[in-house]
Amino acid sequence: MSVTSPTARRAGFDLLQHDELSAAWTADLPGSRTPHVVVGLPSFALDRAVYDHYGDRVPPLENRYLYVLLRAREPATEVVFLSSLPAPADSLESYLSLVGAEERSRVLAKSRLVSADDPSWRPLAEKLLERGDIVDELRRYVGGRPAILEPWNIGPAEEELSVALGIPANATGTSRCHLATKSNGRRLLRTAGVAVPEGSEDVTSPAEVVAAIRRLLRLRPEVKEVVVKLDDSVAGDGNVTVPVSTVTGLDDGRDDGLDDEMAAKTIGSLLPPWYVETLRRGGVVEELIAEVEVRSPSAQAAIAPDGGVTVIGTHEQRLGGMNGQVFEGASFPALPEYAVELGRNAYDVGMELGRHGAVGRFSVDFVVSRHSPGDTWKVYGLEINLRKGGTTHTLGLMRLLRGGSYDAGRGQFVDAEGRVACYAATDNLLRPSWVGRPPRDVRQRLADAGLTYDHSTGTGVVVHLLDCLRVDGRMGYTALADSPEDAAELEGRVVAALS
Fold first, then answer.
1. CATH number, domain with residue 104
2. How far apart are CA 267 and CA 245, in angstroms?
3. pLDDT in the model for residue 239
4. Closest C-alpha to 462, from 470, 472, 451, 450
5. Is 76 helix (H, G, I), strand (E, B) or coil?
6. In a domain, 304, yes or no
7. Is the peptide bond before 333 cis (omega within 30 degrees of 0)?
């Protein structure tokens, strides 16, 4: 990697964004006739502990973004897909099979797949920076045409690669990534007029977690659990639920005067050592919303270089893991009872982010609750993700395959033919007995069951993450349909066909 100083790197990136992004963004709008290049960069700028957690799943996660090849269907667009390892033939075929044979040939002719040939567990951008030959090749390929880099998120290596290539990024740089830490995100949500659960920001130790819980209980003595969140975490992996009784000593929320030092030791014992260490960089403590009915929707939007905001979707998120805080899949769109409100909130958040210089895709995670059916849903903003995420490839697939756009005023996606489009998706269909299962077996079983995506109807199942089967028996899919009920029915058939 280069030894460019952080100040020089940020200055170079910000200058490139200022001078080049607007023209590249405009060239990449649907229907554009300006020849340009889209460079897919599924590089994950994450804490090294997260890489240790995902391990051999990192290259398969990169290949989820092979859907970017479908952008080559636009007449003026050429695509480059970058990856750590060469894309497996089965994964590539899964995406190319989504279009007709003639169009498939055109997509391939206008696409380049470039691999760093490096299986190590670290950001793809770091690997590419060590390959001067690849950087030089890409610069020659772009050849002065408008080009836009599509990273998963931006860290120092991704910024440096952007500058080395001379290609602006459809993403917010490191000089502004602080806007969406968990602590700053709560503050920005409030500024944008979005309600947030009661809680505290800038918590840095178990002792401060105890103090935050005590403050919360003075305001909400009925709270039984809180969520502790690391400022810099993804997919819910940095979220831990903690019962307030660990601090109060009592299950009813009353404080019996449990010693602060003892309470802090108890909290510390509930958190892994790596978590306590990372918490020093900041986190939040907030009430766990508990009602008879609680859901976890999200909204996605994009900020243009001129600060304009477009809401591009809403989802019902499926959360799991030991604490029920880890993203495992989603259904599109969110329920009609609150989808429009989610979109309005996301728009307001995007305008606030844009005022601070943010650009590109972002999402807002919410929690909604009600005491009984028929009650009005209460909507709370939880956090802002100033990056792409677990719904990027699924939403991107639907938009590229069916055309059209999300109508935020109706809370629906209307495709190019005026039909409503829906889907259900996951990247966590996991069966330990599937370890080593051949991807071709999965695709054949789905074909035999009549589930393969049909480009003539715009419905069916698209599989992804097939190369993760060899790692831990995990795969993913997006079940596209014309109604939520049809999407759910497709999901059930997928599981049955593969069992």
1. 3.40.50
2. 10
3. 84
4. 451
5. coil
6. no
7. yes
